Amino acid sequence: MVWLLWWFAVLSTVIHAVRGEGVTYDGRSLIINGQRKILFSGSIHYPRSTPEMWPSLISKAKEGGIDVIQTYVFWNIHEPHYGQYNFSGRRDLVGFIKQIQAQGLYACVRIGPYIESEWTYGGLPFWLHDIPGIVYRTENKPFKFHMQRFTTDIVNMLKSEQLFASQGGPIILSQIWLWLFKPGVPWVMCKQHDAPDPVINTCNGMYCGKTFAGPNSPNKPSIWTENWTSLYQTFGEEPNMRSAEDIAFEVTLFILKKGSYVNYYMYHGGTNFERTAAAYVITSYYDQAPLDEYGLIRQPKWGHLKELHAAINQSSEPLLSGENITFPLGPLQQISTQYNTRSMKSSQKFDSLENWEEYKEVIPNFDETSLRANTLLEHMNTTKDASDYLWYTFSLQQNSSNAQSLFNVVSLGHVLHAFVNGEFVGSAHGRPEDRSFTLQNVLSLNEGTNNISLLSVMVGLPDSGAHLEHQFAGLYKVTIGEHEDKDFNNYPWGYQTTFDAPAGNDPLALNLGSMGKGEAWVNGQGLGRYWVSFLTSKGNPSQTWYNVPRSFLKPTGNLLVLLEEETGYPPDISIDTVSLIQL
Ligand SMILES: *C1O[C@H](CO)[C@@H](O)[C@H](O)[C@H]1NC(C)=O
Ligand SMILES: *[C@@H]1O[C@H](CO)[C@@H](O)[C@H](O)[C@H]1NC(C)=O
Ligand SMILES: *[C@@H]1O[C@H](CO)[C@@H](O)[C@H](O)[C@H]1NC(C)=O
Ligand SMILES: *[C@@H]1O[C@H](CO)[C@@H](O)[C@H](O)[C@H]1NC(C)=O
Ligand SMILES: *[C@@H]1O[C@H](CO)[C@@H](O)[C@H](O)[C@H]1NC(C)=O
Ligand SMILES: *[C@@H]1O[C@H](CO)[C@@H](O)[C@H](O)[C@H]1NC(C)=O
Ligand SMILES: *[C@@H]1O[C@H](CO)[C@@H](O)[C@H](O)[C@H]1NC(C)=O
């Protein structure tokens, strides 16, 4: 979701218009090849599912009355290292758009390049952080240089594949940063009430039917770019349930107020695989959308909206060309749709202990570290996003025996596990709404040398907020003593970054209900971060099941690897099949 835009860096949508052909607009609607359209669009993000899932997701969207598939372009998965592009597998943007085209739908491509979207670092590659003098999302020379380079490369790639509507392709809309381009092309902009001509201001949110004041000129159509089908979920939160009726009512109201384009955010949310989720965001993304995380049809949401789309499409003639007419539909119009519920059935247990091997991470001591600094280093700038984990270590000379000392550590993100002389002494973590947290312990220190090792863990990089390039994570303040007598902020610290990722037809899910916090891989494919021990206010884990796409598995000999930071019980893990039960 894009909540906020800076005035100097306006996220905009280009409508692909070429000499009266392709796509134009007027005060009523977009006009495609000379025809007015009421368009229903659904967000499906290609890296949040697998290429094997795309055809079925798109065909279920089409069957549900969706005309346009909208996606962001995710810069940091395409250019993880400066100048080295990757468009393979889940990163195959062109393959995804060609699949949309093959099924006869339109595409809306939001290039960003800053996308927010609960995606780690808002889609920006972390290496941007080390470009001298960079300030993100501003009229900043180095930032503009890299954005322009990436955006141009993407547009050229899509052009060379003939994917824009003006070339006969499916892309009717695209969003780019306004100041990269010369005026003279029509634009769309979300959440900007004073959009300058010819930019079209649009609405994002749940209740645009009620809240959107409309376009700021009679020559612009009314467009709802992000109609949120529920809300994303963070660890510690219960799922957000938005009813089908609530969505359908708002959509109808918006159309009746001359809206002509509605995008459902998300139509299929999918999975934040590997380490792609932003800070504290769970791997399951908008599971409550019309297509659930596994690509299954969620009823009654999917069916209710399908009927609504059909009804509006049937009335589109009078809606689009009539002059403010009212006509009765008769009493008791009813939408009849199916209801279903989802069932998870255990298909394989991992309860034979001889199949598990355990490797214990060696807790590094100061003497064994090679990266040294006389100060506390910022977490993200030290790991460069190559890992979630950073060890902070120091050694402390204690002159008296039986010393009981109050130990106080303040961290700005996100989790901390503390060890003294190889023994675990405590953990603490922050929350999405309050990243700062304190770990306090009374320590028994040895006379002589004591090894203090603090494991700082991030649960995704932030994706929003001012001055993203200056945001701070990791240890902030370390003191020992009742009155914080001894301050270790400017003290010799040793650092180590660790834990590199190790190398039927029903959807599958890994049930990690017996585990604590960590990360999971199947055959080297990252399922994402799990955090079952972080309970909601109702005492439930925010997420127990983790999507395992069939394409990650071999027929036999699959390897499941878990990195557990707490004390999980692996024998109770199971692979469950996910299926629907009609009600
Ligand atoms: C937008 O999405 C919200 C949340 O799912 C829904 O309640 C509302 O009816 C939708 N409105 C439109 C116009 O799509
Ligand atoms: C109604 O739906 C059909 C089939 O999807 C589509 O071709 C047509 O453009 C739609 N009409 C309008 C006015 O959007
Ligand atoms: C591109 O990404 C894929 C999938 O993650 C990976 O296997 C491959 O090694 C990457 N290619 C390059 C050239 O980095
Ligand atoms: C339709 O016309 C009526 C009567 O002129 C007016 O009050 C109303 O605001 C109009 N509605 C729209 C949606 O333009
Ligand atoms: C980030 O780390 C680099 C070294 O990789 C260093 O040159 C730079 O000063 C650091 N930036 C900040 C803000 O600490
Ligand atoms: C212990 O004594 C050494 C040497 O006198 C001193 O440098 C150090 O700060 C003392 N440690 C503590 C914890 O007081
Ligand atoms: C502290 O670490 C050093 C280097 O690893 C080790 O030789 C020493 O035994 C450790 N001391 C304690 C008390 O664990």
TrEMBL record:
Organism: Liquidambar formosana (Formosan gum)
The name this protein goes by in its record: beta-galactosidase
Database matches in InterPro entries: BetaGal_gal-bd, Galactose-bd-like_sf, GH, Gly_Hdrlase_35_cat, Glycoside_Hdrlase_35
The keyword Hydrolase is assigned to this record: yes
Biological processes per GO annotation: carbohydrate metabolic process
Signal peptide, first to last residue: 1-20
EC number: 3.2.1.23
Molecular functions (GO terms): beta-galactosidase activity
